[in-house]
């Protein structure tokens, strides 16, 4: 008898495993595994979330009007071309469902965010990885891997897990050389952390070209990962595709309300950025002084290199046993590295002390 069979590709996709948050026997572990905001959510966002409890019997505004308008105002964008999603992960999936299928190719850079390849596989498309230079996306390598079958190119900028970024001019060159039928997705999940003059999250390009989109999230600097809230800025025809593919009430009322409140609480965001500006160099220097390789990062996390995979595994287990949760990144083709979020001061201290002891015991 023939059993139900999923569509081609579905079972080829690995299941994305999120960062761990618990260590058996440790009450307060240092959770440095998921690039979350160590300061937590904005108090104003929490208040808006709680207030939404009174109205839980009502369906959300499926168009998320208030939130899109707040986003438009805050970032100087046309709210008509903003689409919100249950995390930017949902928007990645919808873009791939909208523009790729069996036989198509989805291009990304070798150490780019894992969800691009996973989502591509679920629709039967082929993920194609272009090599990088110095753990940074390489425009020429990406362009060299474009074929007639390429439907989307994903660029996480800054990239997770490497922490590297491409300057405005490089991204513009990629878009200029790309055939117009290819959608260029600029995933700027960490944009708010970047303090470089030559960086642009991508809105300029979205306004200028019909095949560029920008994705953003409330999960990182806004500290709302639990709510699942992301957004994107699109050319109108692509926004129309997203609205057709998304489920009608894809973002909950508490998420929409908390998102609006979080946007208004500029002080909280500035505090999160200042915290990162203070600790990112401190942690990087401390670990470099221990003889470890720390890749330069413009995000809220660092990628730390060990001698080989075995040493990275040992460090991961050693830290975990002491209550420091890092992230192994083998799935990204980086088996001898571990990624650590810039945490609260005490968490960063636990990481530095942990690696100091690890180095000492060989
Ligand atoms: C965290 C992350 C996302 C996903 O964010 P959600 O909005 O929580 O789905 C997207 N892209 C990159 C590069 C990320 O690191």
Written description of the protein model:
By secondary structure, this protein is of the alpha/beta class. It has 2 domains: 10-41 and 267-360, Alpha-Beta Complex (Aspartate Aminotransferase, domain 1), CATH 3.90.1150.10; 43-264, Type I PLP-dependent aspartate aminotransferase-like (Major domain) (Aspartate Aminotransferase, domain 2, 3-Layer(aba) Sandwich), CATH 3.40.640. The chain is built from 12 helices and 15 strands. The chain has helices at residues 43-51, 65-75, 87-99, 115-122, 139-144, 168-177, 203-208, 236-245, 253-264, 266-289, 309-321, 345-360; strands at residues 30-31, 82-85, 105-109, 126-130, 132-133, 136-137, 150-156, 183-187, 212-217, 230-233, 293-294, 301-305, 324-325, 327-328, 337-341. The strands form 4 sheets. It has a 7-stranded mixed β-sheet, with helices on both faces. A hairpin with a 6-residue loop joins strand 11 (293-294) and strand 12 (301-305). Helix 3 (87-99) crosses helix 4 (115-122) and helix 10 runs parallel beside helix 12 (345-360). The mean pLDDT is 97. The structure holds pyridoxal-5'-phosphate. The site of pyridoxal-5'-phosphate has 13 residues, from helix 3.
């Amino acid at each position: 008898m023939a059993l139900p069979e999923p569509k081609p590709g579905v079972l080829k996709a690995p299941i994305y495993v999120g960062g761990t948050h618990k260590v058996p026997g440790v009450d307060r572990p240092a959770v440095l595994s998921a690039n979350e905001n160590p300061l937590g959510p904005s108090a104003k966002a929490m208040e808006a979330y709680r207030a939404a409890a009174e109205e839980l019997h009502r369906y959300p505004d499926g168009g998320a009007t208030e939130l899109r308008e707040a986003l438009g105002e805050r970032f100087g964008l046309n709210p008509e071309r903003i689409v919100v999603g249950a995390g930017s992960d949902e928007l990645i999936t919808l873009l791939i469902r909208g523009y790729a299928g069996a036989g198509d190719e989805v291009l990304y850079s070798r150490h780019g965010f894992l969800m691009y390849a996973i989502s591509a596989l679920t629709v039967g498309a082929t993920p194609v990885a272009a090599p990088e230079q110095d753990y940074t996306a390489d425009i020429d390598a990406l362009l060299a891997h474009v074929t007639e079958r390429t439907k989307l190119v994903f660029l996480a900028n800054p990239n997770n897990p490497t922490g590297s970024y491409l300057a405005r001019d490089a991204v513009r060159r990629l878009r200029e050389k790309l055939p117009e039928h290819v959608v260029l997705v600029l995933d700027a999940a960490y944009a708010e952390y970047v303090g470089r003059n030559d960086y642009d999250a991508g809105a300029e390009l979205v306004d200028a070209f019909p095949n560029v989109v920008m994705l953003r999230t409330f999960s990182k600097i806004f500290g709302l990962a639990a709510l699942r809230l992301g957004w994107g800025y699109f050319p109108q025809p692509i926004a129309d595709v997203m609205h057709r593919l998304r489920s009608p009430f894809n973002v909950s009322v508490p998420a929409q309300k908390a998102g609006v409140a979080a946007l208004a609480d500029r002080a909280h965001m500035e505090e999160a950025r200042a915290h990162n500006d203070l600790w990112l160099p401190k942690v990087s220097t401390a670990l470099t002084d221990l003889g470890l390789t720390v890749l330069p990062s413009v995000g809220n996390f660092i990628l730390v290199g060990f001698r080989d995979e075995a040493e990275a595994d040992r460090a991961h287990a050693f830290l975990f046993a002491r209550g420091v949760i890092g992230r192994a990144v083998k799935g990204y083709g980086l088996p001898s590295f571990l990624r650590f979020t810039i945490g609260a001061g005490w968490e960063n201290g636990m990481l530095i002390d942990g690696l100091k002891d690890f180095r000492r015991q060989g």
